[in-house]
Design brief:
There is one protein chain. With 398 residues, the chain is an alpha/beta fold. Helices cover 42% and strands 17% of the residues. The chain is globular, with a radius of gyration of 23 Å. The N terminus is likely disordered.
């Protein structure tokens, strides 16, 4: 009899502990490492706003599988030591993190891997997409290198259509940071090399005749643009943020005929307004829907949420779409996660295939072989102050 009672107690206790160990948490803690006031704050602040807004909306509508999301976010002001400190404050608390810049994401990646915390960076550097090296980094945007490849392909096509002899001549304009160099140059990261646009240009017959460095906060770019003019560059592909307005204004003052292509962070409605007439004709690689794409269900939802929490804001730049889409995708993974650990969220993300974001992005697919979420974009051009698509969706290999 005593043996039977003891066995029964063991079974009951095992059942209790099993239930506790597999029980869902009362809340899901997500971290945020954002630049609100630093060198990229002009685009970082609206990105962070969107993440916060979507979390608030999800919580007010029942949360995720009945659980509330608790967002713990920090403004690291685009300073890597502060990003590291912010991350350390999240250790043991957050099961996934919404991140930001390239330099800080690279610095945090070894810790992210060790701690097994999925990190959905706003950096679209290609070397962060290889699960054999960075197994917990996920990107929803078309990588910088792929954006630059698309731009080069577009340039080659335009040159061929024009009937001009020889190869088109291109200049790369970038800032001297990991973010700035990522689209253009081969990166060696954790022992593996990742080729970028510099190599791709050679394979398709585009001559890169100049490379100019313009700081993220530059207020003058005349000397660099004069160097570019001497090189004979017909096109310039730019990896910048707010400094793009300086580049365009100075190019107009110098009466340059060079055509500019801004990669995604280098252009938005605010930057175009600041540049004024100097922005006219500028091209833009944009992997995300614009605020004005009101026919898209994802944009309709995004506008509804923004207008609910910020009725005073009547317009949003594309960076808001980027933050909104990042949190949207993360929530979709949380919904299908089998367990709420870093490893569980990673598996859930890798199970997403052709996820429809309502047009906020191209369809999102992650696998255990590639953490490139999207691989298609359209090229826009500023015409009479408006962003007009001048290409269909251009797809690149994952």
């Amino acid at each position: 009899m005593r043996k039977s009672i003891s066995f029964l107690l063991v079974v009951l206790l095992f059942g209790v502990f099993s239930t506790l160990s597999f029980a869902a948490p009362k809340e899901i803690v997500i971290g945020g490492v954002f630049d609100i006031t630093g060198a990229t704050g002009a685009v970082g602040a609206p990105y962070a706003d969107a993440v916060r807004d979507y979390v608030k909306y999800v919580n007010e509508n029942g949360g995720v599988n009945g659980m509330q999301i608790k967002l713990l976010d920090t403004d690291y002001a685009y300073k890597i030591p502060q990003a590291v400190a912010a991350y350390k404050n999240l250790q043991g608390k957050a099961i996934a993190i919404q991140g930001w810049g390239t330099g800080d994401t690279e610095a945090l990646s070894p810790m992210i891997t060790k701690d097994k915390i999925p990190y959905m960076s706003a950096s679209y550097s290609e070397h962060l997409t290889d699960p054999t090296i960075t197994p917990y980094n996920f990107l929803i945007g078309v990588t910088y290198a792929d954006q630059a490849r698309v731009a080069l392909k577009f340039i080659k096509e335009q040159h061929t259509k024009s009937g001009k002899p020889g190869n088109p001549k291109v200049c790369f304009i970038y800032n001297d940071t990991g973010f700035g160099k990522s689209p253009f140059f081969t990166v060696e990261y954790q022992g593996k090399k990742f080729a970028a646009a510099d190599d791709y240009a050679k394979t398709i017959g585009v001559d890169v005749v100049d490379k100019e460095i313009v700081a993220l906060n530059a207020l003058e770019a005349t000397s660099q643009l004069l160097n570019m003019q001497k090189s004979g560059a017909e096109w310039a592909i730019c990896q910048e943020t707010k400094a793009m307005t300086t580049i365009l204004k100075d190019a107009k003052k110098l009466n340059l005929t060079t055509k500019f292509i801004a990669l995604n962070w280098a252009m938005n409605k605010n930057f175009a307004a600041i540049a004024g007439d100097a922005a006219e004709g500028c091209y833009w690689t944009c992997p995300f829907a614009l605020w004005t794409d009101t026919s898209l269900p994802g944009v309709q939802l995004m506008r509804k949420i923004s207008e609910k929490y910020h009725p005073e804001i009547k317009d949003r730049i594309v960076c808001y779409t980027q933050g909104f889409a990042a949190m949207y995708v993360m929530v979709e993974a949380l919904k299908v996660a089998k367990d709420y650990t870093g490893e569980g969220i990673k598996k859930a993300l890798e199970s997403l295939k052709d996820l429809d974001t309502g047009g906020l992005t191209g369809k999102i697919t992650f696998t255990d072989k590639s953490h490139k979420g999207a691989n298609s974009l359209r090229i826009y051009q500023i015409q009479k102050g408006a962003f007009v698509p001048v290409s269909d969706y251009i797809e690149v290999a994952r």
